[in-house]
Amino acid sequence: MIDADDKSPPFELPIRVYIEDTDAGGVVFHPKYLHFMERARTEWLRSRDVRLRAGMTDNISYVVQRASIHYAVAAYLDEELRVTADLVRCGKVWMEFHQQVLRVPDGVLVAEATIKIACVALDSGRPRRLPAAILALAPLPGRPD
Amino acid sequence: MIDADDKSPPFELPIRVYIEDTDAGGVVFHPKYLHFMERARTEWLRSRDVRLRAGMTDNISYVVQRASIHYAVAAYLDEELRVTADLVRCGKVWMEFHQQVLRVPDGVLVAEATIKIACVALDSGRPRRLPAAILALAPLPGRPD
Amino acid sequence: MIDADDKSPPFELPIRVYIEDTDAGGVVFHPKYLHFMERARTEWLRSRDVRLRAGMTDNISYVVQRASIHYAVAAYLDEELRVTADLVRCGKVWMEFHQQVLRVPDGVLVAEATIKIACVALDSGRPRRLPAAILALAPLPGRPD
Amino acid sequence: MIDADDKSPPFELPIRVYIEDTDAGGVVFHPKYLHFMERARTEWLRSRDVRLRAGMTDNISYVVQRASIHYAVAAYLDEELRVTADLVRCGKVWMEFHQQVLRVPDGVLVAEATIKIACVALDSGRPRRLPAAILALAPLPGRPD
């Protein structure tokens, strides 16, 4: 039996807001949060010894299939953010992440998203099985997410 | 009575894929479609004589609240795309757009999104009434979207 | 003998400034001018039937070797710019462009750059001969640039 | 007398190459190095307690006036880079930086630039005196750079 209390906190990446991330409205430009989330997923993979470029050499690439993002409050230049990456569901050829962008130090939720990623062959774009190293990271089927 | 046949086709903006839009996977980097969609909304506003910068002078800004995007097929360097912007719903302080990215010339759907935008005061970030020029563009309540 | 009066005006691409191009300082973010200049070079090539992606299929890529850019005045959201691309010098494996970003409609110089591009093999990154289609576009040795 | 041996090594910021930084040529997109260099200058300022956003509140902004960049070798997805920021010259209203992008761990030079920054009033764009906190950081006139 899976106990929710056993759940470890999701992976987190600290990210600083630079001038490149902002727009003339004075806030972080909304698509940049997808960049931040991609960085967090990449670092989560790296923390588990999966490398994107090495994957490409093996004809493996990852493409985003769906993204649903809610923008809660604006983030500003010079702020520090924490970006989480939590693999919540997984099929043979896809992964679904829940990701949050939180403001440091008060933990206020800035943005939140569900992102579905497909594993594809780099040359053809066709779906292919996730590498064993990732499948081994998949949450158990009964995981209460 | 509103007849769906009366509905005019949505606004469209042609967009070329440049090297800046692509990534090492050889395809358009997924957050760039949000850029393309923002450009189409901006040009739709411009076609109706609403200017973003002039709005800022009047303390009006627009922020994305929610975005749900489905990526159907990849787009590639040098391709030409058509990006639609269709205002489907509207409140006093928000607008909801349905947007598609279509490949030229075959019309294949590349990506599709629902984007909810809030009108805010530039200085405080608080919700404020949409300008009259935009409210006048709003679809009728009974519009069958 | 080459007469400067024979010189045709350089290729120009119109570019609109979108919110994605601006930063929290309220102006176009300085690296974006390199994007604009790259788009103008790409469209100049396209106007001469040279396609970047088709080149990649033939193992041809282009990399910037040097860029010197002078920022004269700021550009702002909603402004329209004209970006020129003028091939001023050319070797067997490189091209040098002079490029200007001009404000519409008053023609004020916004930014100006000299950009040296090398032709390389996509797989190895090693220099390779420019395609014949480009060498044919090269300015004459005596051209008074 | 100033002894070059006294010179401390320049400020360095580690930067990871993410998929967002790459293009369809498989390498880091050339304007991104200007992003990396801006981040390093910002972190150098932060290490000396100068904050960009706080400056904006005081009507202070910084704009790039000139940038000359040499691209030595390509950088690739997943690589780690070190980006230096060395203030080499300084006037009353401007700073000049020498910056390098070095590959980790072998220290190979990836790119190198001289960047001249002007201090301006955020509202008018007119030159204004550098803040005292920055002038205090300026290299001595006789510094052998």
The strand line-up of the biggest sheet of chain A is 1-3-4-5-2
**How would you classify the quaternary structure?**
homotetramer
SSE class of chain A: alpha+beta
CATH class of chain A: Alpha Beta
The whole-number mean of residue pLDDT values of chain A reads 91
Note the main attributes of this structure.
homotetramer, 145 residues, five-stranded antiparallel beta sheet, 5 strands, 18% helix, disordered N terminus
Task: Tell me about this structure.
The structure is a homotetramer of 145-residue chains. With 145 residues, chain A is of the alpha+beta class. The first copy, chain A, has a single domain (7-135), classed as Thiol Ester Dehydrase, Chain A (Roll), CATH 3.10.129.10. Chain A is built from three helices and five strands. Chain A has a five-stranded antiparallel β-sheet. The first copy, chain A, is globular. Mean pLDDT of chain A is 91; it is low at 1-5. The A-B interface holds A 24-27, 30-32, 34-35, 38, 53, 56, 61-71, 73-74, 122, 125 and B 24-27, 30-32, 34-35, 38, 53, 56, 61-71, 73-74, 122, 125.
